[in-house]
Amino acid sequence: MQSRKNMTLTELKKVIADIYPDQTQFYVIEFKCL
After folding, report:
1. 3-state secondary structure of 1
2. d(CA 18, CA 4)
3. Cα–Cα distance list, 33 to 19, 27, 30 (Å)
4. Does the pTM of the predicted model rise above 0.85?
């Protein structure tokens, strides 16, 4: 799951940057809390 975690984080940043460019930081912080 750890190897997938890194890939998910990278993909998550790309997807969020496309959908919510202004909320990227918020989602990254929320993702870390999970």
Report:
1. coil
2. 21
3. 21, 10, 5
4. no
